[in-house]
Queue: 2 jobs
Job 1
Amino acid sequence: MTQHAAYKHARVVYQGHTFDATEQNGQLLLADGRLVAFDQVQWLPPLAPVARPRTVIALGLNYADHAKELAFKEPPKEPLAFVKGEASFIGHQQLTLRPGDVQFMHYECELAVVIGRTARRVKKEDAYDYVRGYTVANDYAIRDYLENWYRPNLRVKNRDTCTPIGPWLIDAAHVHAEYGDPMNLALQTTVNGQVTQSGNTRDMIFDVPTLIAYFSRFMTLNPGDVILTGTPDGVVDCQPGDVIVTEIEGIGALTNTIALAPR
Amino acid sequence: MSTSELPIHGTVYGVLLNAHAEWQSASTLMHEVPYKAPPAAPVLYVKTANTWSEHGSAVPVPADVPAVEIGATLGVVLGMPNTHGEPSHVRGFVLLNDVSLPHSVQAQGFYRPPVKFKNLDGFLGVGPTLLPAADVADANARTLEVRINGSLRQTVDLRQMRRPLAQLLSDVNDFMTLQAGDVLMLGLDICTDGPDAGHRPHARVGDVIEIHAPGHAGLGVMRHTLVAAPALEMPV
């Protein structure tokens, strides 16, 4: 029997061409009708191209436990956010480069929200209507480079290859039908098969509707824009050769391998 | 707003504290909490696409914002390919106005990323034309004049940048590769005398902002009017 998961969207390169794809029977159904195995393609970020640079907002300290881990003294009054360039994105099953001289580079498993409609001054109660879908991001940080200026500074958070995202963009309608909303999903990271991080999106300090309402108050969010919603407790150093899998219930498991940077 | 005429297409990055004068004025606080040490690498921020205001358009200022900072600078537009930031890969230059809600080192405004200060809709004025790199021997060897309602409020001397273009490109590309089409600002400065001494020029709803580079007609004159927009009334 054919099981076509039309709500799971990928972008892949197959034999030199880029395709939109969905999942069917554990394989990729390309937009031209061909069915190919997962390991026959190169996975791209599951984001359709946009005419102008995509806004990528990332949250820091958005989980109560992670905030505590990083010595937050009192609960934050507003989201701690920074903006990344989308050039730091790479797809599922790619390599992320670790400089040879750093001491502490860690993953951050994050629910990524992809905007589907132009969002301006959106009310919290309407916020889910503006979501196109959800995916998984691994927002690596290299703490050696942390400076207390516009912290976290982009040298820590906006490096080439350091934001794997994917493999699937899951339709918001599917997630909402299946789970009600995305605010009770288990997150987990494994390093070489060992669980090192586990949490739940219910522990976000500012939930998805609050974030959309907050940002769209002063900045218009456009279709294809992305909000990375922060990571829970349990980040550990990753070394060249380590295989990192960041996984969110109902959204996907994003695999990434660390490699030593050439210089 | 129509952006079909904009001479920029990629991600726009700004750099904090690149001017000697602003660095000097912040230096006494650099070792204090929360900063604890002067910044070592370039500190960057992104002006997202929602901020782009084409030349001649109105820049919306929320009613609960008493004044905005005018941040005149030159944006370097990268060509392709860009592997090590060599000047030969610079495609050209464009006038930019990095509008911002005022925030200062003293009020600890430089500690956290400036999204709520710098990424408001319309808060990046973009000049009318791209000046090809071939017409510019040294991007830092020019000045920019900022006029508000016709009166000269600031002269930005781009020679007064701590990292001139070549070094800035090199130090940025050291940790992230600028892509073809990306834009990197050369840096903002503060005023050292007059009504705006110690900060960038402040402007209000109704003001007309003009920025140009004397002697470099190829960059054009960038003009924007600040218009009233509904109050932000931030919900959080």
Job 2
Amino acid sequence: MLKTRIKEYRAKYNLSQEDLAKKVGVRRETIGHLENGRYNPSLKLAMDIAKVFETTVEDLFKY
Amino acid sequence: MNKHTKKNPLSYLGWLGLIGIIGVNLSAHGAWILQLFLIYFFFFIYRNVPADELFWFNVKKAGLSSFILGLIINNIVLITLAIFESIGGNQDATKLIIGMFLISSFIPLLFFIGILMYYNRQEKKYVEKDNA
């Protein structure tokens, strides 16, 4: 599973899981699963999240 | 919801439940088997659940397990029917075939529903855990 910095970036951008979920068009549960490394996102979703945080996929997700 | 979610297509399976209502009305005429279609009404609970990629991931996992279970049950049913035939089946053969067909059709469906419910519960449990 991938390690992510989504939680860190959410705090930086002052976004809740719900806010981020709405921005990228998924459910809040999906963001929770991503943050805790229980689910690997599709490349499209990873890129959309990276776009919200104005960063790269490589920065957001670590193997 | 936008890009990654669509209107939940899984909920459309719920309409098959209407066949179950026909079965209830025709049960006196021997069409009781159709009542089993009432199970499909379960899928309406996903009507308001956005179908994002985690949802489909869970559907795929549940579908794979049910498919494998279906294969196993089908093989058992076929072997049972072959044995029954080889020892000289009698007039109860039709009942046996119908019973076996029901088992091989609806057990995987029930299993699929059960696993999907389990995954949904797990999702909610993790969200509550994250909030705590």
